[in-house]
Every structure is written in structure tokens, then in C-alpha cells.
Amino acid sequence: NAEGIVLNRYGNITCKGIIPPYQKGEYIRIAGELGEDIYGQHIDVKKVTEACKDRAAAIRYLASDDIGLSYEKAKLFVDTFGIDVYTFANEEDAIQQIHEEIEISKNEATKIINKIRSTIAFRELMEYGFDKDLKYATISKLIDTYGGRAKSVLCADPYVIGMQFGASFAACDAIAFDNGGKTMGKPRIRAAAKEIMEKMQNAGDVFTYERDLYIGVKKQLGLRSSFVVPTAVIAGALEGVGKLPHQRAVLRGGAVL
Q1: pLDDT digits over 58-70, tens only?
Q2: Three-state SS string across the chain, please?
Q3: 184 Cβ contact partners less than 8 Å away, ≥ 6 residues apart
Q4: Residue 16: beta bridge partners?
Q5: Nearest Cα to Cα of residue 28 among 85, 82, 113
Q6: Whole-angstrom Cα distance, residue 27 to residue 78?
Q7: What pLDDT score does 249 carry?
Q8: 122: Cβ contacts below 8 Å, ≥ 6 apart
Q9: pLDDT 10s digits, 223-237
Q10: pLDDT tens per residue across span 133-151
């Protein structure tokens, strides 16, 4: 509902919120609330969805450098499958359909559909990770690597995949618990230890005592100081994590903190 909106002299209005990196020419629907500050009116964005509701816009989007269809093929695409390219791209046999109907190679069809699906996946992962402190750079890397499968891959193994792509331990924790993660699972202990060791390295430490490392891991895990954890459990979880350069932190199983 655009009632009450006052555009600036350029015919625009500022939108404040988390918005995925859509390409020029993509149509989106923004839901939010009208606000005002010293710069004038703006929209506080609550939700963003892809919304191709205009034939000319859908053709421009498909013929853009980002998608890569020729104008003639883009026009045929819209005439054949309609203007809502995002809904169509999520159909299970979308790749096969455009391969046959638009007469493009299976490889080109796969690239086009995966690109459209990745746009949707980026927005969905941003929405999911917003209150979990999942960084934009991490989301971008996940989408570049896994495309439309990024969210499911991350949720299936948040500590390994998340830390690998630069997510904080807190973000991995939030995602894991949201998907039934274990409080004392080995992947969680490994992720906590990795972040503690990275913090030590960033602080310039090249030496630490094993007891200090274990205490740091326990704090990162949110465990009470009186909570007894056999060092063998932490040591076993740390196999393969590595040490800081020149760091003398020998992990010995059997002792108890």
C-alpha cells in the first residue's frame, strides 16, 4: 500500500533493512512500515520477496548479463512459462522444460535455473540467519559454493560448514540448537576450541598452557566452572584442529578439570 509515501526529487524512497544483493532489473516486493527521520521518509523493511509481475521486466531480467538469455529466448521463455520466473524456477523439472521448449543446451538451462534459485536461496538464508548473527560474507560464500542447497547443507552440519565459511561459534551454536544439536557433541567442542585458538592467535599468543586452553573451551561452551569434563573428551575433539605456530599446548587425556 503506497498511500502516504512521499518520493524524493529523484522519484525514490530509502529502504532500511536487510536486502539481498539483487541484480539491476529484478522485480521485488518489499513489505514494511513507513518511517521518518532527519533525511525524510523511509521504509523500515520487514520482508522482501522476488516478484516478477510485469512481462517487460521479466524479459529484461532474463536477458540481463546476470542470467544471459538472448532477448528472443527471454521473450520465448516468458511467453511459454509466464512472467513469474521465480515460481517456475522452483519446479522440479524446470531445467528439462526450458531445455526442450526454449531449445537451449542442458548445461545452459542448468546454469540459468541454478542462478535464479540461488537468488531465492540467498534471500531465504539471510532471513534465517538474521537473528543468528550469520554474517553477509558467510552467506555469500555459502551461496557461491552450494547455490540453492546452501541452507540445507549448513543446517545439516553447522559447526563444520559454518566455521569453514567464517561463521562465528555463536552463529553455529544458534543454527545447531535450532536443528536439534547436542550440547556436548564432538563437532560443538571442536568448533569452540577452534574459535578459542583463533582468538589466541589474533591476540598474538604463541604459547598457552593446556589448562588455560581447556578452561577457555569450557567457557565458550557455556559450561559452569564446576562442570566436570574429562580432558580426554576435549583432547579427542581437538584431533585435527591444529595448533598455533610454535604453540606448546600438549593435550593429555585422562586428567579432569
Answers
A1: 888 888 888 888 9
A2: CCCCCCCCCCCCCEEECCCCCCCCCCCEEEEEEEEEECCEEEEEEEEEEECCCCHHHHHHHHCCCCCCCCHHHHHHHHHHHCCCHHHHHCCCCHHHHHHHHCCCCHHHHHHHHHHHHHHHHHHHHHHHHHHHCCCHHHHHHHHHHHHHHHHHHHHHCHHHHHHHCCCCHHHHHHHHHHCCCCCCCHHHHHHHHHHHHHHHHHCCCCCCCHHHHHHHHHHHCCCCCCCCCEHHHHHHHCCCCCCCCCCCCCCCCCCEC
A3: 221, 229, 233
A4: 44
A5: 85
A6: 15
A7: 45
A8: 20, 21, 139, 140, 143
A9: 766 666 666 666 665
A10: 888 889 999 998 998 899 9
**Grid cell of 74 as nine digits:** 527471454
- Could you tell me the three cell numbers for 55? 512481462
